[in-house]
Design a protein that fits this description.
Elements: H1 13-32, H2 46-58, H3 61-73, H4 80-105, H5 111-118, H6 127-148, H7 151-171, H8 184-200, H9 206-235, H10 243-246, H11 252-266, H12 273-282, H13 287-293, H14 296-299, H15 312-343, H16 346-358
């Protein structure tokens, strides 16, 4: 049996790059979809084609982020402190965004929206956090299975899991409870894939994997156009990109592109000290960008369809810049949160809990 990859290495900054890049992609996805840019024209509009290409380049974000969780978590122990810290992080963003909403709109939100933010596990709000929390609770058992299986057996398990869920789960969204990827089950499968990559690595030249990522993005773009054209001839109505089939985290093209991007970036060695410092700062704070932008009081304010009215260069730069601004805002907000948690004693409380229960 092939030996597992030695984990006693110096820090791999490529993992931090994956976390930062995937969260930046999440910001861009929301700017494009929730921001209304892809609603700005038909599929045969070249600006919408480019916007669709950006969307498909970024749709790998969730799968990548979930695989990174498995990559980092396969050797980690379950920690109650981490679980509680995540929930308190969500609560912080709920309070801050609620206060800002009241100040700037002079309105009180309905009780339902407040409860959705405070108790994300009970609602679909912050779906990734809700699904990840379930996976994290099961992670000791998942990791035990990962570490006990041989490389060949684990590879077989992953192959048949993907074969079944990527076909069955895309034919009927209720099959296996996958919900096209918006589910704990799908994040658990991605955790397993990330764990496999950590344990055994993936061979091949890094630029081959970059080429695979770009190839499957282009294939997905072509598929979206084919579906849109077919729908046009069947209905007679012009269509924007028919994204309902291609923009699924369980779409085989998205899954392969995601894995290829993860492997490509993991093969990059980052030796520049300045870049290392930036990644060390931004990586642990990056989840804050998701919590800020998708907060129920913030998410509804995203509105950028006007970008399509500008020339294509301005449109693309505007999309990329807006995504960057959201990402930076989330990083800064989470940095402030960490300072507040330290000042008011939450860190000390969590440390006490860790000493008592986590060992």
């Amino acid at each position: 049996m092939q030996q597992k990859v030695n984990i006693h290495k110096k820090r791999n900054y490529s993992v931090d790059m994956l976390k930062v890049l995937s969260m930046y992609f999440v910001m861009g996805l929301h700017v494009l979809v929730r921001g209304g840019i892809l609603e700005g024209g038909n599929f045969n509009n070249y600006k919408i084609e480019v916007a669709g290409l950006l969307e498909l380049l970024m749709i790998v974000a969730v799968d990548v982020f979930a695989m990174v969780s498995g990559y980092l978590g396969v050797y980690s122990k379950f920690k109650l402190r981490r679980f509680m810290e995540l929930w308190l992080q969500v609560l912080f963003y709920t309070i801050v965004c609620l206060v800002c909403y009241i100040i700037f709109t002079h309105k009180l939100p309905n009780v339902g929206d407040i409860l959705k933010s405070i108790f994300p596990l009970m609602e679909e709000h912050y779906w990734y956090f809700s699904s990840y929390a379930i996976v994290y609770l099961f992670s000791p058992m998942i990791n035990k299975g990962l570490l006990s299986l041989s490389k060949s057996r684990l590879r077989q398990v992953i192959f048949f899991l993907l074969l079944i869920v990527c076909i069955g789960g895309n034919i009927n969204m209720n099959n296996f409870g996958l919900l096209f990827g918006y589910s704990p089950l799908w994040l658990a499968i991605l955790w397993v894939i990330g764990g496999y990559i950590r344990l055994y690595g993936v061979g091949g030249r890094k630029y081959l994997h970059l080429g695979m990522y770009l190839l499957f993005v282009i294939l997905n773009l072509a598929l979206s156009n084919v579906i849109s054209i077919l729908k046009y001839y069947l209905t007679g109505n012009p269509q924007k990109f028919n994204l309902s089939l291609v923009l699924r985290y369980t779409n085989p093209l998205v899954v392969i592109a995601s894995i290829a991007l993860v492997v490509f970036i993991l093969k990059i060695r980052i030796n520049n000290k300045g870049v290392q410092r930036v990644l060390l700062f931004a990586s642990p704070l990056s989840f804050g960008a998701y919590l800020l932008q998708t907060n129920i009081f913030v998410y509804q304010t995203l509105n950028y369809p006007w970008l399509v009215k500008h020339n294509i260069i301005v449109m693309v730069l505007g999309i990329l810049l807006l995504a960057l601004l959201w990402f930076v805002a989330g990083i800064i907000t989470d940095y402030i949160r960490k300072i507040i948690f330290s000042k008011i004693g939450i860190d000390a409380l969590l440390k006490s809990i860790a000493n008592r229960y986590d060992g």
